[in-house]
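Materials and Methods. Structural model of Translation elongation factor EFG/EF2 domain-containing protein. The 302-residue sequence of Translation elongation factor EFG/EF2 domain-containing protein from Nocardiopsis mangrovi was retrieved and submitted for structure prediction as follows.
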Amino acid sequence: MSRPDERPAELPRPIDVRVDHSEGSGADRVRVRFDIAFEPLPANVRDDFAFAARLPASDPAPPEWRARRLGSELDREWETACWAAGPKRGRPVRTRAVLRRLEWDAADPDPDADALTRVLDQAAALAAREAHRALTEGDGPRAVGRNALPRPPALPRAVPGVYVRHIMQTGCPGYFAMVWADAEPLPGDAAEDIAFTDDLPARPADGREPLPPEFTAAFGTGVRDALALRGGGRSPFAVHVVLRDALWHEVDSNEYAFRAAGRLAAKEILDCVAEGRAPRPVGRGSGRLTAVPPMPRTRTAR
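The predicted structure was written out as tokens:
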């Protein structure tokens, strides 16, 4: 976990985090609840991060793969949280994450492994980031997860014209995603905190192929994931995100690229609201742009 030029810090105190998180609705709903303690790591442990499951004897032992998956995601997310603190505060912090309780339920008694893994991964990210927030801010941890938080207020204002240019074509695989999106306040009587729709042209006037539906869905997933993570398990605002237009590449575009574009778009929406400004181009490959370019659908064909 640590970098050669950085000496890991020691966790100064235990931090106990409670997570109650779920995703989906109806027959697809999966819910995970767990308590986890981030503790100082003994000096005789060589690694910077360790994971252990110490559940009450009365609790059924979780399948090994679930505990192992949770441990690996906690390790990755703890490292991410440490370095995300910035060049002055970001450094590895030695810790041991001890699982004290783990429960899950679903409308389906045998939920799809991918669905459960996804919720576990989200819960691990929420736990690690909340523990690190409590550490850096010097206060107590808060319960995190969708079910631990109240319904958020509506987005304070519309944020039209969000543009993401996320392109890298020098790697293998590369990635290529260009999107234009708008964000609108979601009415208080809406069933969900986040609504996502696409208003993509069915037949682009310039002759290009429409965006494949799996890329559209990946963008929406990225938006939802980023908003939920930013809000501790639930979006900070009730928001409707509309995908207006997109460009893609038949070789370098993939679901990963559009999911990343969705996360970048969500971050830009929240930053625009917090800073009271209009959207700026964001994403890898957007650095030289000074303004949001027009959508392809608005350009006059030659």
